[in-house]
Write a structure and sequence with these properties.
two-stranded parallel ribbon, alpha/beta, 4 strands, about 120 residues, two-stranded parallel sheet
Length: about 120
């Protein structure tokens, strides 16, 4: 598991919380990441991206879509039968967040299949 944030102090608090609360042994990494600077993006493959409260700034929608597209593009990495791996993201933001629908349009334009599902908050 890799935690990321642009703010190193926020990232450190999330890391501390995660490592103190985890119930099973799991490697937890952290990475200061700027969605606008690909050189800060962790060099790794992922199957799932979980994000919350990330759609508050309309200016961040395209950079977020770029990050998701980078990590979630179809892959043919070795697996059972060398089939395409399913990669996905779940973004949880308050239902009243104005940028939710706009993000789905940005993601669709970037070639991703995005669905906005009501989630109270």
């Amino acid at each position: 598991m890799t935690l990321s944030d642009l703010d190193a102090a926020v990232l450190e608090k999330a890391y501390k919380s995660c490592t103190e609360l985890q119930s099973q042994v799991m490697e937890v990494k952290r990475s200061v990441m700027d969605w606008n600077d690909e050189t800060t993006w962790p060099k790794q493959t992922v199957d799932t991206i979980l994000a919350s409260d990330v759609l508050y700034d309309a200016g961040s929608l395209q950079p977020l879509a770029n990050v998701l597209r980078h990590y979630l593009l179809p892959s043919t990495e070795p697996n059972d039968g060398n089939k395409e791996l399913l990669k996905q993201a779940m973004i949880v933001d308050p239902i009243n967040r104005l940028n939710r629908e706009q993000f789905c349009l940005v993601a669709d334009t970037a070639g991703m299949d995005a669905e906005c599902i009501p989630f109270p908050g």
